[in-house]
Design a protein that fits this description.
Elements: H1 2-8, H2 11-18, H3 20-23
Length: about 45
């Protein structure tokens, strides 16, 4: 089960890399971690 989840996290990045024209000229963020994210430490929210 854990091995499957590790691979599934990269799907969002694979979609972006496979379809670059769909995302060209847009601001995009792809979360590649399954861990906790501290929103107070994100650089664009400071």
């Amino acid at each position: 089960m854990i091995r499957t989840w590790k691979h599934l996290r990269a799907i969002s990045l694979a979609i972006v890399l496979h379809n670059p024209r769909a995302f060209r000229g847009k601001r995009l963020g792809v979360v590649l971690t399954g861990g906790n994210v501290d929103l107070d430490r994100l650089p664009w929210l400071a």
